Amino acid sequence: xxVGIVGAGLAGCECAMAxxxxxxxxxxxxxxxxxxxxxxxxxxxxxxxxSNSFRSDDPLSxxxxxxLEMAEAGSLVMDAARHTAIPAGxxxxxxxxxxxAEITARITAQPRIRLDRREIQxxxxxxxxxxxxxxxxxxxxxxxxxxxxxxRAIGQQSLYFYDAIAPIxxxxxxxxxxxxxxxxxxEGEGDYLNCPMDEDGYRRFVADLLAADKVQPREFEKxxxxxxxxxxxxxxxxxxxxxxxxxxxxVGLTDPRTGRRPFAVIQLRxxxxxxxxxxxxxxxxxxxxxxxxxVFRTIPGLAHAEFLRLGSIxxxxxxxxxxxxxxxxxxxxxxxxxxxxxxxxxxxxxxxAACGLWLGLSxxxxxxxxxxxxxxxESALGALLSHLxxxxxxxxxxxxxxxxxxxxxxxxxxxxxxxxYASRAREAWTAWKNQYLDEPGRLPRG
Length: 446
Ligand code: FAD
What we know:
- This protein is an alpha/beta fold.
- It has two domains: 275 residues, FAD/NAD(P)-binding domain, CATH 3.50.50; 149 residues, Beta Barrel (Elongation Factor Tu (Ef-tu), domain 3), CATH 2.40.30.260.
- The strands form four sheets. A six-stranded antiparallel beta sheet has the order 10-11-12-13-9-14. It has a five-stranded parallel beta sheet with strand order 6-2-1-7-16.
- β4 and β5 form a beta hairpin.
- The site of flavin-adenine dinucleotide has 36 residues, from α1, β15 and α11.
């Protein structure tokens, strides 16, 4: 049995190691050092292109739980990260050079993995012929030729080249004495949650947006702003009233507390059927994360907002997973070709590695004629994978967060919710792991 994996990033290396540990032969194709994406610079594998942080290690956070689950499933990335960790408070951060060197050493020392340094430009590349499965793990900056070929295979409209992500707010943290439910021009309770602003508040908000610190786009990202995903602050820069006539327009809305139309309205759209999370409509932004929290908490109704995800805009190649992938991450249009990592629509280092690990485990089972069901959606990995099957109108990548998990039963105090999500996730994951994984990296049982 031989599997070909395109891209030796976080997902590709994780997937390769999961397969190799279960005695599956792997050819791992990596285009570096012949060709580098605009963000990659090192010859080593699993390069961290920006921050050196794997985010929170708090076992009460979704990403902390995901890391625990990965470690228990034999994650190469988590193990290498622990070996090369540097002090970072409650976060797991690594020395990026040591981390990539460690992964490269482990991959090249694994006898079942053959590293082939070349660019794969097409799904029909002769190097991929005759393999039992092909995994595309070419990441958010997959090479142009490969991305174009993938677009041909799945349909141009199903492959995206950038993220314009608006923040997501935990529904339990909204002040419902201020925000009100209504859809434009509709009587009674509507689908949207509306945060009303008076004129002074609006003008202060626009001034705050303009003054806030922003992340500077990299050279290759500058063209994004011309592609129709204007950041909210760039729109505000066009004139003080631009937002009030654009995404913050109040037409068709009456504040039930005043009986009048507000001067401006920030609309929040439910992110899931259980309405546990709300998306801030039109708020894609390049504000830094701390500035987003500061400025957006000045919005009436959001003073104590907990952000499940913050906004961003960046170059990102990803497929419309719910329409193009099967639950086992196989391309519906090309059976035998699987996707892993950020290109599936998960977001972030940890999530991409987790996705690669899951695909590796699931392919091992498949190659042995068995089916590995995904972990339950209450677990962190299960919640992340369930995002790829959401029925959203506008599918957008997501990092792991409790908003992706099924709602907690009953009404719970805000202070206890994280602990409840976390203990439920640990229970669900442990039951799944005990049933399906025998020892880290080798599976399935039976
Ligand atoms: P990658 O890690 O990008 O790996 C893909 C690999 O495939 C690369 O080695 C590439 O050279 C190779 N490849 C591409 N095309 C081909 C081809 N045709 N043939 C052969 N090889 C190919 N996430 C965070 O958590 N924190 C951050 O701070 C952060 N900052 C980011 C900044 C930028 C500019 C970008 C673009 C992304 C950032 N991300 C960040 C997201 C992060 O890059 C991804 O989550 C993660 O690296 C994705 O892992 P991956 O394995 O899917 O892809």
